[in-house]
Write a structure and sequence with these properties.
Number of domains: 1
CATH superfamily: PurM-like, N-terminal domain
Number of strands: 14
Structural class: alpha+beta
CATH topology: 60s Ribosomal Protein L30, Chain: A
Shape: globular
Order of helices and strands: HHEEHHEHEEEHHEEHHEEHHEHEEE
Number of helices: 12
Distance between the termini: 25 Å
CATH class: Alpha Beta
């Protein structure tokens, strides 16, 4: 069975082909090549302003959190899930220049027979705590309540999602204009930023269906049948060898599987606010490497060859997934961020200034590649073996 077939049988789509087909031909907003759809100022009626609205969830990472909580009793795993879901919204919005005055609303669906009130309390309080932490860096996110529904008939454990809204000056909107001649600055998704309290594996919130089934053992299928779709073929369910409390060692450092798979998605908001305040005019593109991972930029570029030839070393969590699954690098780069989840396209002089700003937050950053004008739209990634892996623009 090919890896592609295995992903599809689990109901996974890294490229979201059907979604892109469904929205083809619909309006892309007033800045068509912006990372998020930008609308006219519907709420204020000002020609100088615009509105941005976004919705996302923590995805199937909640299934991992559910099993880990049942195994260990550790409620703190749900705090990471809250950050996952919020960051998947606010960091996308940040890619169009929005880092302040964001309204946040939650939509939580749970199976009440499995998810206790303590879990709900942890989730609600952590959302407020995350917003308070961001306020310390001048990032204003304002909780506005939301809906928590007991929907056990349609949710096997829990689904945690948020919707965000902001009003922004049009002059502050960043629209991707990648034309060739730019360098690419990558910002590491792993390590420990100055505003994080522990090591972050860099896993993010993409590819978690594959990660959990490829790393965790059949024990989890037998013990937590509610953690996966019963319609999934048996041969692609929990094929790995690990449990949450197992330890793995990479480069002399030891990690638990839970720590690697459940690290909360890093937000780059504190860093991006400083970058936008100082260097907005010099930025040609800001890409959040989420769905589609390292190939995400292909949705926002035309007639260029994007060359990524100096990527970060593969963080341990992705090496673990690769070792357990045998997935080839071409597929890994399409599913997982593989070491950086934010990339900025700019000139070489500005690039060094961005790297210096990142260093102030203890975030590793470096020039990971360049862009050349080209008749077609292409991406070439050079992996650890320095062999080129090529991708074309999605249909």
């Amino acid at each position: 069975m090919s890896e592609k077939t295995k992903y599809e049988q689990r109901g996974v789509s890294a490229a979201k082909t059907e979604v892109h087909e469904a929205i083809k031909g619909l309006s892309k907003g007033i800045f068509p090549n912006a990372f998020c759809k930008v609308l006219p100022d519907i709420v204020g009626g000002s020609d100088a302003h615009c509105n941005i609205m976004h919705a996302d969830t923590a995805g199937t990472k909640t299934s991992l959190a559910y099993m880990c909580w049942k195994e260990t009793g550790n409620l703190d795993v749900w705090k990471g899930i809250v950050q996952d879901a919020i960051v998947m919204n606010v960091d996308d919005m940040a890619c169009v220049g929005c880092t302040n005055n964001i309204i946040l609303s939650s939509t939580i669906g749970r199976n009440k027979n499995l998810i206790t009130g303590d879990v709900i309390k942890t989730i609600i309080r952590e959302a407020n705590a995350f917003c308070e932490r961001m306020a310390e860096y001048g990032v204003g996110i304002h909780p506005s309540g939301g809906e928590t529904a007991d929907v056990g008939d349609i949710v096997r454990s829990i689904d945690v999602g948020y919707t965000t809204f902001a009003r922004l000056e049009r002059s502050q909107v960043l629209e991707n204009k990648i034309t060739g001649g730019e360098v690419i600055v990558g910002f590491s998704s792993s390590g420990q930023a100055s505003y994080e309290t522990a090591y972050n594996s860099g896993i993010g919130s993409n590819g978690l269906t594959s990660a959990r089934h490829d790393v965790l053992s059949k024990y989890h299928a037998e013990t937590y049948k509610e953690s996966y779709n019963p319609g999934t073929p048996e041969e692609v369910i929990y094929n790995g060898s690990k449990k949450f409390t197992d330890e793995v060692t990479f480069d002399g450092k030891t990690y638990t599987v839970a720590d690697l798979l459940l690290s909360p998605t890093r937000t780059y908001l504190p860093l991006l606010k400083q970058i936008f305040d100082k260097h907005l005019a010099q930025l040609k593109g800001v890409i959040h490497c989420t769905g589609g991972a390292q190939t995400k930029v292909l949705h926002f570029a035309e007639n260029v060859h994007i060359i990524k030839n100096n990527l970060f070393n593969m963080p341990p969590v992705f090496q673990l997934i690769k070792d357990e699954s045998g997935t080839d690098l071409k597929e890994m780069y399409e599913v997982f961020n593989m070491g950086h989840r934010l990339e900025i396209y700019t000139d070489a002089t500005t690039a060094q200034k961005l790297i210096d700003l990142a260093d102030g937050f203890d975030i590793e950053a470096k020039i990971i590649g360049r862009v050349e004008a080209h008749d077609n739209t292409e991406l070439t990634i050079y992996g650890p073996d320095n062999q080129p892996i090529k991708y074309g623009k999605p249909a």
